[in-house]
Amino acid sequence: MAPGDVIVKGLDLVFEDGKTVSYDLTGDLSELYDNRAEVKRGITYKIVLRFQVVAELVQGLRLFCDFKRKGIRVDKIPSSIRSYVKGDHEYQSETYEMPRGFLAKGPYTMEFRFKNQEETFLEWEIPFDLE
């Protein structure tokens, strides 16, 4: 594997109420903090990841997501995606649920890592507020 074998283009959080929050991952990742979403407690959602495979084949792709509140991990989502051949691809996760209850209200960060066994292709953070 060589750097650049996978280019991560974007990520969407698709909520059960029809709302979608989209993030462009091709530019300056520090700008993701300017797009702080407000999310309902207990709502279900799916993660949609858009990426391009530049190499002929990339094996064993995985997406990791850690939910953090005040720097402490409160949940994690590991996803084995699979192997992909050259081209544009989209991965849609299973359905997950945001934290619920009165104490869950407040600021969170989702920390993502997209990797395989050999290298990490991209790491990024998305802040949001549970209301």
Automatic annotation (TrEMBL):
Which biological process terms from the Gene Ontology are attached to this UniProt entry?
Answer: Rho protein signal transduction
List the GO cellular component terms: cytoplasm
What UniProt keywords apply to this chain's record, in alphabetical order? Cytoplasm
Query: Where does the UniProt annotation locate this protein?
Result: Cytoplasm
In alphabetical order, the GO MF annotations are:
Rho GDP-dissociation inhibitor activity
Name the principal localization, coarsely classed. cytoplasm
Asked if the Swiss-Prot or TrEMBL record annotates the protein with the keyword Cytoplasm, the reply is yes
The answer to whether keyword Cytoplasm applies is: yes
Family membership noted in the UniProt record: Belongs to the Rho GDI family.
Q: What is this protein called?
A: Rho GDP-dissociation inhibitor 1-like
**Species this protein is from:** Ciona intestinalis
